């Protein structure tokens, strides 16, 4: 068969005259040389079809179109009489993509990053693409500090014109920061400055924080930290002259040198307000955080402009522009500021959008909004909305943005972005005592059932001392205005013979309902009514007081219990609290007609003080009082107890207070006082990461019985250190405490911990 070559490769595109032919009508098209590509795919890219008149221009266009697909290494067009023959040589396809020697990454993570640069299984093999893939892999490793990484690529031909690509990785050791030098420090010591940085030389926690591995982003943050530290202390002309980062020849050690110029220290000579003062000048002047005569502080000046902007924002001026212009007197080393105020236009919120809530329903977030759609912009209400959503405890992150609406000058949208976290909790508590005693308890809770915001809790405990089976449910928005409703059902079997308290046994079952009514933004009233039936068991090993109670009032008791309470929660966050106040008061009363009639009241007050960006002082105080009425006696199983991780650390759980003279067991009492002071701070080496916090604490407290008068002299004291970690598997708490004024009868429990898991 005689064939005439029409065109081939680029020659057809560049040298038309060399392969000129007479036009002809295409009666058929035949494709040759393909193995994986379907003929229909080739036809779809051809700019000609059967019946068309073939010309030199169309031949060149066909070759160009087929090359543009990237599927083919060579393309030729031939004529067999009046049949157009398309002869193709396919590029090989990638059949497999494999890695060897991986330790720092998972293969699927690297495959995902290579897919973004065009290299993936089933795609067409391209040598240039492989080179780009090698560079991407090296970039990934360099970002992790593997500066000595070596990558060898092997291409293996396979049947059906396919190839296997293998990346052999020699990761090498991670390069560590061996030295950081700050040149030019004088007013502030280099050691103090180095302590401010996130990047640091290897330490006892850097295996976890990775802060001994160089990161350009972390270095940029550290440079800004240095700048802020000097500007907050009056060094208005502070400047970072240069930064050098070098690596040792073996690519194992990194050296960082920061050259700074401190400049002179300035004080403030005056602060004036100028511009459009929509509010009384006296009111705005009160918002100025920095006063004449003080050392200049950029932080306090920033707080000043922020406070004025926020105050204007509360009036609807969302885009208020407040700037402080300095005037330097270098001879006197003073600076005068003029704060220019431009309130802009008053705006309103057009729409509130909630994103990121893949499980939680929109309404659960929206009902916490205090800013209304179509209402005037109010900065306080927007901040309050964010705080309330964060306080739900359903989200790891809550951010609120107010971007302007395109095409308008007086509208913004409120974008509420949340990042959900697991809201189910499996809590386990455990402790070690001086007598090598070990105890465990557990519960299961779901705070956001099916994304509805409703709470469900199940407690199942089968320890030797307590067997508890309980179910609780709470609907925080039983009504649209925030009235909550819930119920509790429980069965409890207790045997205290293995504990430090007076031995007795009891079986209780009961249940009841409760309601919560909001009376202010952060204030709630709570009410409850429940029924309890308890059967007691005492023996000759029980304290005489317990035996006498059963003799006088019987082993079985029926109680109709009414409760009333008040709660005010002004904490900034439930996860990592740094400021705010929490107060709670509860009154519990056994109604007339119950086997035992009594009144029990408790009050708790917590206050969190942010001392600076890292330190938080947490104070907690609790008091409890109980008293019987109607010629009855307070049931001993309703006594207060103290001691342990929830009250006075360093003492065995529930071991403080009156003791039985015969058995030396704790009896509890009708009066309880607890006080705790705790200084919380990030773990050294963790930088600004608050997921793990250390604390030093001091605890005080005790319990007084019916025959004991309240006396501060009988308080027990302890002090120690604690660690709280919001770990990936849940919250963990550890404490080690040493009692100060331990008495001979006290039971000591120095090491205590609490652990949990989330699902």
Automatic annotation (TrEMBL):
Q: Which GO BP annotation is one of this protein's?
A: protein insertion into membrane
Q: Where in the cell is it found?
A: Cell outer membrane; Membrane
- Name the GO cellular-component terms: Bam protein complex
POTRA domain boundaries: 24-91, 92-172, 175-263, 266-344, 347-421
Q: What is its main location?
A: membrane
Q: Which residues form the signal peptide?
A: 1-20
**Record note on quaternary structure:** Part of the Bam complex.
State the function annotated in the UniProt record: Part of the outer membrane protein assembly complex, which is involved in assembly and insertion of beta-barrel proteins into the outer membrane.
Family of the protein in this entry: Belongs to the BamA family.
* Cross-referenced PANTHER family: OUTER MEMBRANE PROTEIN ASSEMBLY FACTOR BAMA, SORTING AND ASSEMBLY MACHINERY SAMM50 PROTEIN FAMILY MEMBER
Q: What is this protein called?
A: Outer membrane protein assembly factor BamA
This protein's species is Sulfuritalea hydrogenivorans sk43H
């Amino acid at each position: 068969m005689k064939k005439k070559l029409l065109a081939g490769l680029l020659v057809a595109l560049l040298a038309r005259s060399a392969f000129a032919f007479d036009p002809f009508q295409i009666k058929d098209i035949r494709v040759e040389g393909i193995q994986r590509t379907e003929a229909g795919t080739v036809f779809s890219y051809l700019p000609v079809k059967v019946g068309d008149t073939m010309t030199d221009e169309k031949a060149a266009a066909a070759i160009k179109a087929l090359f543009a697909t990237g599927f083919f290494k060579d393309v030729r067009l031939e004529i067999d009489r009046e049949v157009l023959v398309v002869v193709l040589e396919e590029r090989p396809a990638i059949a497999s993509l494999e890695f060897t020697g991986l330790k720092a990454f998972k293969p699927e993570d690297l495959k995902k990053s290579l897919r973004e640069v065009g290299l993936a299984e089933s795609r067409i093999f391209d040598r240039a693409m492989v080179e780009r893939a090698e560079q991407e892999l090296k970039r990934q490793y360099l970002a992790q500090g593997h500066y000595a990484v070596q990558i060898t690529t092997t291409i293996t031909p396979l049947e059906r014109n396919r190839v296997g690509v293998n990346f052999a990785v020699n990761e090498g050791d991670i390069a560590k920061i061996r030295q950081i030098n700050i040149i030019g420090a004088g007013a502030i010591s280099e050691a103090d400055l180095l302590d401010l940085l996130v990047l640091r030389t290897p330490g006892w926690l850097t295996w976890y924080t990775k802060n001994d591995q160089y990161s350009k982003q972390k270095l940029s943050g550290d440079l800004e930290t240095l700048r802020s530290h000097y500007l907050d202390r009056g060094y208005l002309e502070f400047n970072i002259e240069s930064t050098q980062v070098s690596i040792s020849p073996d690519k194992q050690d990194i050296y960082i040198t920061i050259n700074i110029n401190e400049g002179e220290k300035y004080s403030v000579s005056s602060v004036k307000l100028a511009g459009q003062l929509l509010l009384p000048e006296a009111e705005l002047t009160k918002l100025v955080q920095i006063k004449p005569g003080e050392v200049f502080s950029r932080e306090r000046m920033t707080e000043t402009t922020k406070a004025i902007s926020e105050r204007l924002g509360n009036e609807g001026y969302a885009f208020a522009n407040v700037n402080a212009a300095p005037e330097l007197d270098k001879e006197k080393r003073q600076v005068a500021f003029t704060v220019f105020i431009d309130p802009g236009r008053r705006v309103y919120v057009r729409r509130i959008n909630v994103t990121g809530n893949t499980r939680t329903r929109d309404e659960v977030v929206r009902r916490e909004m205090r800013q209304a759609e179509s209402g005037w912009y109010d900065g306080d209400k927007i901040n309050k909305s964010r705080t309330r959503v964060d306080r739900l405890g359903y989200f790891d992150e809550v951010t609120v943005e107010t971007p302007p609406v395109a095409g308008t000058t007086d509208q913004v949208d409120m974008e509420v972005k949340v990042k959900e976290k697991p809201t189910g909790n499996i809590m386990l508590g455990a402790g070690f005592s001086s007598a090598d005693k070990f105890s465990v308890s557990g519960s299961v809770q779901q705070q956001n059932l099916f994304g509805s915001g409703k709470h469900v809790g199940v407690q199942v405990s089968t320890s030797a001392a307590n067997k508890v089976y309980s179910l609780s449910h709470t609907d925080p928005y039983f009504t649209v205005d925030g009235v909550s409703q819930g119920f509790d059902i429980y069965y409890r079997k207790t045997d205290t013979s293995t504990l430090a308290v007076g031995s007795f046994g009891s079986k209780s079952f009961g249940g009841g309902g409760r309601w919560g009514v909001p009376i202010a933004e952060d204030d709630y009233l709570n009410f409850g009514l429940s029924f309890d039936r308890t059967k007691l068991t005492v023996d000759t090993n029980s304290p005489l007081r317990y035996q006498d109670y059963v003799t006088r009032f019987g082993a079985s008791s029926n109680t109709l219990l009414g409760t009333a309470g008040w709660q005010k929660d002004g904490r900034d966050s439930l996860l990592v609290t740094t400021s705010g106040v929490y107060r709670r008061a509860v009154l519990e009363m056994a109604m007339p007609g119950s086997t035992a009639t009594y009144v029990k009241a408790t009050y708790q007050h917590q206050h969190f003080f942010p001392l600076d960006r890292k330190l938080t002082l947490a104070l907690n105080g609790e008091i409890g009082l109980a008293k019987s009425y109607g010629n009855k006696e307070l049931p001993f199983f309703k006594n207060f107890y103290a001691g342990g991780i929830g009250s006075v650390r360093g003492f065995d759980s529930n071991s403080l207070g009156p003791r039985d003279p015969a058995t030396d067991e704790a009896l509890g009492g009708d009066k309880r006082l607890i006080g705790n002071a705790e200084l919380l701070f990030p773990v050294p080496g963790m930088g600004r990461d608050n997921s793990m916090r250390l604390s030093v604490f001091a605890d005080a407290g005790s319990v007084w019985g019916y025959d004991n008068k309240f006396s501060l002299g009988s308080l027990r004291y302890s002090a120690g250190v604690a660690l709280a970690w919001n770990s990936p598997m849940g919250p963990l708490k550890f404490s080690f405490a040493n009692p100060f004024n331990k008495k001979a009868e006290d039971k000591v429990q120095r090491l205590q911990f609490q652990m949990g898991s989330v699902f």
